[in-house]
Fold this protein.
Amino acid sequence: MKDFMNETFQFQLGQISDIWNYYILKYKCCSDKLNLKDAIETNYFGDILGYFSDVVDIVFVTKPKVSSFEEKFAFTISFLQALYVQQDFVEEMLSLFQTKYNKMHLKDDPLYSTNRNVRNEIVGHPIRKLQGKFISSTLFSYETSATKLQYLRYHKDNNFKFEIMSFRILDIQNRHRLFLEKYFTIILSKLKTVVNRYIKELGNLEMVLEKGDFQNILKLTRVYFEDIFGSDFLYNEESLLKIYNRKEEHFRYLNLINRFIQDLKESIDEKKNFAQEIFLEKPESMIDSPDLPKIEIVFVKAGEDAINKAPIKESYHYEIGKLATKRDPRDFEFFGGILRRKCADNKVVMEEMDHMEAHLWNDIEYYSALRLICLELKEE
């Protein structure tokens, strides 16, 4: 059976990752709220997320296979060092997202300091001095096992008398799990404030969308939803303005503008809906075995067709996809020829194909015509 001890914080880490990837990294007005310019340019937070996930199995290993003294020693070092790295990452996140918590707060929290001290005594500073004065020394114990970590210590606080320090691996793991859940909750609370403020600001763009002033739409899109620029071949301010000024000349230009407005509205709705979903509590279904899809068995009498044969809808997806990316004359002739043969009786498609061929190197003419073909063939 799967071990779910670390699932809650993994779910929280996924939430933080989603907020970073789908809000902070994409929209400047989100990152500006946290003064994250340098972090956005380097995206070093992505390295933190990756490294953090990579060492999860080391920290929360359930049954380490150790038998020899060397294996126990290697396991102890890797286990405590991986935990230590995760603590450092949490500290960095608390600072990065401008929570009120810092290293001093962490040092006062036993969920942090207890495990930190164990790691420091065994791995970080087995011989410890402060301002030249001897503080403590430790030796790794032969009694360490897959379930228990043990070391021998001589510390000035105990008049350098011999001590046996013993900790259950499971206790260290549980303490660390609670540490992660506590501070991830704090980080998510701060990020929720940022995302909620952003969603409210999107209302400014939605109001302009309803009024229909296209220049203002582009202006506010640049401020609040710039990620949509570049999501399509013609979705940039310069091209969109040129196309908008020609919307009365031909339906291909009006269609492109209508498509942009529709895509913008749908994208805003998706972003608002995701902002609600992302902060939902961990669903109970995550700790249950997923339901297998139901399989319906149909018994067919002799002589009956097993499958009702419905007419297959003509697809143009392949040709349109190639025309969107293959623009040299030879490729256009080949893939365009396939589409022309399929649509020989469709006047709109044939006219727009001619228009594309005549403007093979003009992005506005080429892709606005291709967009109209997509509309005509219901391949949006």
Strands lie at 127-130, 133-140, 148-155, 162-168.
